[in-house]
Design brief:
The protein is an alpha/beta fold. The chain is built from 4 helices and 5 strands, in the order E-H-E-H-E-H-E-H-E. It has a single domain, classed as Rossmann fold (3-Layer(aba) Sandwich). Strands 2-1-3-4-5 form a 5-stranded parallel β-sheet. The protein is globular and about 40 Å long. The model has no long low-confidence stretch (mean pLDDT 94).
Length: 119
């Protein structure tokens, strides 16, 4: 799985995902910090990445508009802040949830990650 982490996630989470075999990179690592959600989505789409974010409201709209226009994307994974902490103590839960779905295809979909009770 190739995964672009939205701006709220840091390099340490990307590294934790890479340690589990996920091809993960952050918006900051791409030099896109501060860019619009539309730009981030386009970068993910152009580079073949699914996107990990907690920003459901903006990305649900962007995904919908993108697909309605007949274009395709590699998926958006939503890690709701009510289920997952972006603090370092919460990285294990995010990593476990992503690893749990890494073999799935998310093309043209927005999917919510499920919190693992043991993570």
């Amino acid at each position: 799985m190739k995964l672009l982490l939205d701006e709220m996630y840091g390099v340490k989470l990307a590294q934790a995902l890479r340690d589990q075999g996920i091809d993960a990179i952050t918006v900051a690592e791409l030099g896109m910090a501060g860019r619009s959600d539309v730009d981030v989505f386009a970068a993910a789409t152009d580079a073949g990445y699914a996107l990990l974010t907690e920003n459901v409201s903006d990305f649900a709209r962007i995904c919908s508009e993108h697909v309605a226009a007949g274009r395709h994307h590699h998926g958006v994974l939503i890690a709701l802040s009510s289920r997952f902490s972006r603090r370092p103590a919460g990285y294990g839960s995010i990593v476990a949830a992503v690893v749990g779905v890494a073999g799935d295809r998310f093309d043209d979909r927005l999917a919510y990650l499920a919190a693992n009770a043991s993570g």
